[in-house]
């Protein structure tokens, strides 16, 4: 982040504007809205500025800039097209650490004006940090359409009762929960937006007293959320809502860190594991931790990569949470098997190639004496293998033994759905060699459907094929991987 978004109170604060044309006028009109004390330096001023001068809304302090004019000024806006003069003013202001905005010249800005959506007192500023102002403007238009004009009423209504609520609900977590209830309420907000303040107030206070007397925020709850396999766009809307309402998020290493940025800033985000065999917090301790957090009133989101019920131990965690009497819910996610396959252009079923699909985990499979390899012999079944990288030889040997042909197509996909997704394609006998060439997390897809990648790959680089890897392993592969 190059700039810190900040809302500044400029009421009665001295701001210097250099320039007297239409560009300066636009900035001055904005400064007037916040009550700044505006001083202008310009050779001549346009008729609109003359009107402001007559009304004493601005102070025209001179025709020529001299450094002493910066005295006691907190912000300088340069709106001239004289590049030499702009540099002179910018350098002088910088020397005294005065904030400078030079219109249309980002190289001479220590602060920039965002595109603004104004629903007083709600303000939204959007900036591309000088890289693409047009994009910021388009985003602004989108938000303008999205946000009701009445948004400001809701904030004003809330501000009236802020202190009252503080007095009645002392605990900050409980208070936050109360406000969430109010803002998500199906009655209060619509009443406010329809100007029916009396009824809104009645409902507001009945909610407040109800909560105060029933102490209904005493216990928190747990939401088990699937974050999807990587691409942030694969998070569900319900998952996003849970994340944004969470007091604490306990997440696994597989979760895309960009998803955590979608949470509130005051949400505690704690990494609790896990890479294979590398658990930051042992499962038993983690279960206890979740229960303890919920019991002390927190809204806990347990965020897992992919889908929490697919090789995610989500079921085990919920068993303990349920035994402890904690309320919980589950928000499914897109599992790596389907998400990664889709982004690799490999349909897991296809009428001509596979009539079914099986998901298995390769983790500990060699120690599992009861595992029925023969059930995987059907060539019309696609196999999706999670966590297979640690057991590649065992997997390929057993599949060949149970009847899968050595030339069965396999895809080894790492970082699926991310921009650095890599796909290697070869045959079952080559599985170990391919798996060694990629990083964690890696998914195997085995079966004839893999050959469809060639035609319907749509995301990222196309696959690197094993016959090419053989001949150019030391050149292109390095580059590719
Ligand atoms: N609950 C998760 C799976 C957890 S097991 C889900 O539903 O997806 C972890 C394994 O998932 C990894 O070892 C890997 O095999 C697979 N995996 C998860 N994300 C992946 C990704 N982006 N690319 C490739 N494989 C992935």
UniProtKB/TrEMBL annotation:
<dbReference type="InterPro" id="IPR012409">
    <property type="entry name" value="Sirohaem_synth"/>
</dbReference>
<keyword id="KW-0597">Phosphoprotein</keyword>
<feature type="binding site">
    <location>
        <begin position="305"/>
        <end position="307"/>
    </location>
    <ligand>
        <name>S-adenosyl-L-methionine</name>
    </ligand>
</feature>
<feature type="binding site">
    <location>
        <position position="229"/>
    </location>
    <ligand>
        <name>S-adenosyl-L-methionine</name>
    </ligand>
</feature>
<dbReference type="InterPro" id="IPR000878">
    <property type="entry name" value="4pyrrol_Mease"/>
</dbReference>
<comment type="similarity">
    <text>In the N-terminal section; belongs to the precorrin-2 dehydrogenase / sirohydrochlorin ferrochelatase family.</text>
</comment>
<keyword id="KW-0511">Multifunctional enzyme</keyword>
<comment type="function">
    <text>Then it catalyzes the NAD-dependent ring dehydrogenation of precorrin-2 to yield sirohydrochlorin. Finally, it catalyzes the ferrochelation of sirohydrochlorin to yield siroheme.</text>
</comment>
<keyword id="KW-0169">Cobalamin biosynthesis</keyword>
<dbReference type="GO" id="GO:0032259">
    <property type="term" value="P:methylation"/>
</dbReference>
<dbReference type="GO" id="GO:0043115">
    <property type="term" value="F:precorrin-2 dehydrogenase activity"/>
</dbReference>
<dbReference type="InterPro" id="IPR014777">
    <property type="entry name" value="4pyrrole_Mease_sub1"/>
</dbReference>
<dbReference type="InterPro" id="IPR036291">
    <property type="entry name" value="NAD(P)-bd_dom_sf"/>
</dbReference>
<dbReference type="Pfam" id="PF00590">
    <property type="entry name" value="TP_methylase"/>
</dbReference>
<feature type="region of interest" description="Precorrin-2 dehydrogenase / sirohydrochlorin ferrochelatase">
    <location>
        <begin position="1"/>
        <end position="204"/>
    </location>
</feature>
<feature type="active site" description="Proton acceptor">
    <location>
        <position position="252"/>
    </location>
</feature>
<feature type="binding site">
    <location>
        <begin position="43"/>
        <end position="44"/>
    </location>
    <ligand>
        <name>NAD(+)</name>
    </ligand>
</feature>
<dbReference type="InterPro" id="IPR006367">
    <property type="entry name" value="Sirohaem_synthase_N"/>
</dbReference>
<feature type="binding site">
    <location>
        <position position="416"/>
    </location>
    <ligand>
        <name>S-adenosyl-L-methionine</name>
    </ligand>
</feature>
<dbReference type="InterPro" id="IPR019478">
    <property type="entry name" value="Sirohaem_synthase_dimer_dom"/>
</dbReference>
<dbReference type="InterPro" id="IPR050161">
    <property type="entry name" value="Siro_Cobalamin_biosynth"/>
</dbReference>
<dbReference type="GO" id="GO:0004851">
    <property type="term" value="F:uroporphyrin-III C-methyltransferase activity"/>
</dbReference>
<feature type="active site" description="Proton donor">
    <location>
        <position position="274"/>
    </location>
</feature>
<dbReference type="InterPro" id="IPR014776">
    <property type="entry name" value="4pyrrole_Mease_sub2"/>
</dbReference>
<dbReference type="InterPro" id="IPR037115">
    <property type="entry name" value="Sirohaem_synt_dimer_dom_sf"/>
</dbReference>
<feature type="domain" description="Tetrapyrrole methylase">
    <location>
        <begin position="222"/>
        <end position="431"/>
    </location>
</feature>
<dbReference type="Pfam" id="PF10414">
    <property type="entry name" value="CysG_dimeriser"/>
</dbReference>
<protein>
    <recommendedName>
        <fullName>Siroheme synthase</fullName>
        <ecNumber>2.1.1.107</ecNumber>
        <ecNumber>1.3.1.76</ecNumber>
        <ecNumber>4.99.1.4</ecNumber>
    </recommendedName>
</protein>
<feature type="binding site">
    <location>
        <begin position="335"/>
        <end position="336"/>
    </location>
    <ligand>
        <name>S-adenosyl-L-methionine</name>
    </ligand>
</feature>
<keyword id="KW-0949">S-adenosyl-L-methionine</keyword>
<dbReference type="Pfam" id="PF13241">
    <property type="entry name" value="NAD_binding_7"/>
</dbReference>
<feature type="region of interest" description="Uroporphyrinogen-III C-methyltransferase">
    <location>
        <begin position="220"/>
        <end position="481"/>
    </location>
</feature>
<feature type="binding site">
    <location>
        <position position="387"/>
    </location>
    <ligand>
        <name>S-adenosyl-L-methionine</name>
    </ligand>
</feature>
<dbReference type="GO" id="GO:0051266">
    <property type="term" value="F:sirohydrochlorin ferrochelatase activity"/>
</dbReference>
<keyword id="KW-0456">Lyase</keyword>
<dbReference type="InterPro" id="IPR003043">
    <property type="entry name" value="Uropor_MeTrfase_CS"/>
</dbReference>
<comment type="pathway">
    <text>Porphyrin-containing compound metabolism; siroheme biosynthesis; siroheme from sirohydrochlorin: step 1/1.</text>
</comment>
<keyword id="KW-0560">Oxidoreductase</keyword>
<dbReference type="InterPro" id="IPR006366">
    <property type="entry name" value="CobA/CysG_C"/>
</dbReference>
<keyword id="KW-0808">Transferase</keyword>
<dbReference type="InterPro" id="IPR035996">
    <property type="entry name" value="4pyrrol_Methylase_sf"/>
</dbReference>
<keyword id="KW-0520">NAD</keyword>
């Amino acid at each position: 982040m190059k700039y810190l978004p900040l809302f500044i109170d400029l009421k009665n604060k001295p701001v210097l504007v250099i320039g007297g044309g239409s560009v300066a006028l636009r900035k001055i009109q904005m400064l007037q809205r916040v009550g700044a004390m505006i001083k202008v330096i310009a050779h001549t001023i346009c008729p609109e500025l003359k009107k402001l001068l007559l009304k004493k809304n601005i102070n025209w302090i001179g025709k020529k800039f001299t450094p002493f004019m910066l005295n006691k000024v907190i912000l300088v806006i340069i709106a001239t097209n004289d590049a030499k003069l702009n540099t002179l003013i910018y350098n002088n202001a910088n020397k005294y650490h005065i904030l400078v905005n030079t219109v249309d010249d980002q190289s001479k800005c220590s602060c920039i004006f965002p595109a603004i959506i104004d629903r007083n007192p709600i303000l939204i500023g959007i900036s591309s940090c000088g890289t693409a102002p047009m994009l910021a403007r388009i985003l602004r238009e989108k938000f303008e359409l999205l946000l009701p004009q009445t948004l400001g009423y809701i904030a004003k209504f809330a501000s009236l009762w802020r202190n009252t609520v503080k007095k009645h609900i002392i605990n900050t977590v409980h208070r936050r929960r109360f406000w969430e209830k109010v803002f998500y309420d199906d009655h209060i907000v619509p009443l406010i937006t329809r100007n029916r303040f009396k009824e809104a107030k009645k409902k507001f206070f009945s909610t407040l007293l109800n909560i105060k007397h029933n102490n209904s925020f005493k216990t928190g709850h747990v939401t088990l959320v699937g974050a999807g396999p990587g691409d942030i766009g694969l998070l569900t809307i319900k998952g996003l809502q849970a994340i944004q309402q969470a007091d604490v998020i306990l997440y696994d290493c597989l979760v895309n860190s960009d998803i955590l940025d979608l949470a509130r800033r005051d949400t505690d985000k704690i990494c609790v594991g896990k890479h294979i065999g590398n658990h930051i917090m042992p499962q038993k301790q983690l279960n206890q931790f979740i229960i303890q957090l919920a019991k002390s009133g927190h809204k806990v989101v347990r965020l897992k990569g992919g889908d929490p019920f697919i090789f995610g131990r989500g079921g085990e965690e919920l068993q303990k949470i349920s035994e402890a009497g904690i309320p919980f819910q589950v928000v499914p996610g897109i599992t790596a098997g389907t998400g990664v396959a889709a982004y690799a252009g490999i349909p897991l079923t296809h009428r001509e190639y596979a009539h079914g699909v099986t998901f298995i985990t390769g983790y500990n499979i060699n120690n599992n004496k009861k595992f029925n390899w023969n059930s995987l012999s059907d060539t019309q079944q696609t196999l999706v293998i999670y966590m297979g990288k640690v057991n590649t030889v065992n997997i390929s040997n057993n599949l060949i033994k149970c009847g899968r042909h050595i030339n069965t197509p396999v895809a080894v996909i790492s970082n699926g759905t991310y921009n650095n997704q890599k796909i290697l394609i070869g045959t079952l006998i080559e599985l170990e060699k391919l798996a060694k060439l990629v990083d964690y997390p890696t998914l195997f897809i085995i079966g004839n459907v893999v050959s469809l990648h060639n035609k319907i790959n749509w995301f990222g680089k196309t696959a690197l094929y094993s016959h090419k890897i053989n001949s150019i392993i030391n050149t292109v592969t390095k580059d590719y991987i």
